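Figure S7 source data.
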Amino acid sequence: PEAITVQELANRMAARGGEVVKALFRMGVMATLTQTIDADTAELVVNEFGHRVKRVSESDVELGLEGAVDAEADLLPRPPVVTIMGHVDHGKTSLLDALRKTDVAAREAGGITQHIGAYQVTVEGGQKITFIDTPGHEAFTAMRARGASVTDMVVLVVAADDGVMPQTIEAIHHAKAAGVPLIVAVNKIDKPGVNLDRVRNELLQHEVVVESLGGDTQEIQVSATKAMNLEKLLEAIVLQAEVLDLRANPGRGAEGTVIESKLDKGRGAVATVLVQKGTLHQGDMVVVGAEWGRVRAMLDDKGRQLKEAGPSLPVEILGLSGVPAAGEPLTAVEDEGRAREISEFRQRKLRDKQAAAAGAARGTLADMMA
Ligand code: GDP
Ligand code: MG
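Tokens for the predicted guanosine-5'-diphosphate complex:
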């Protein structure tokens, strides 16, 4: 594995060398600035400083792209981002629809809801919750494959009359692999003769222990179609969010992740981006995966034009050079020169990768014909 000096690691994080030495000391590692540490230790330090470990760092071009470490005082509470998962026909779509209708802000805004792959609701107490609204499992898998983590928690929908099914188990595995907590929404409780104990025990077999069985996973009984107990589910999400103490610095350049994208006949490349750090402004220069552009317009899930979007807000943006894939990162940059430079570098890397893959495929074909 790669090694790195303490000073170099500090430089890459835009942190003080002394701070890194201190962090290492707290982890029981004595090292001076010029000493090297292994990649695993470096990764722990990076996490300690609140950074995501960088997936693409083969080039100086991308150095510093993630910006400096946020000071504790700059971190403000942000809404939770929730993904709904569960077996087919257990009621994911119905629940997403029902939850969207609970939005107290939408009533006042009187806007026309539009599907942009994610939406945000304001609950009775004023707290906000963002729901990812794209088909759960594929989106989750695609994003994780790209190293993107967008969701803070998973609401696992289990139909009371059907119990734990293959995709329920898959969802449990996804959540565990991503290290995000689960809330169980036992759905369809309006149906006659449902057996809640059976569902709980089936979950237990997959190491999801609900509170009534002495565990710490919240379980809420709901009916998506009859709109029963939706407030309770929202409360459970708010409670879980408080436990997670989710924070971000809104006062820096924006960083986010593409949730959904398309090529629109009239509007060109359109991408829904979840802002995760900082604030995205109309007019900002951004790189998104291998694409770039100036944010020409920003729309929320209520079809309203926005001038700015802070952490955890999903927005549809216009103005990109092309259509980025779901899971690609967005970063605001200083100017067009920087945007072009990073974009060109990434385009070139993509072409190299494609050429290598094509070469490998030709090789296989040649082998087969030999
Ligand atoms: P998905 O495949 O998980 O997205 O499930 P859907 O939301 O499409 O729901 C599948 C079926 O279950 C539909 O016919 C829904 O009307 C029905 N359904 C969803 N939630 C409930 C519920 O709470 N009660 C009842 N009785 N039916 C429900
Ligand atoms: Mg569905």
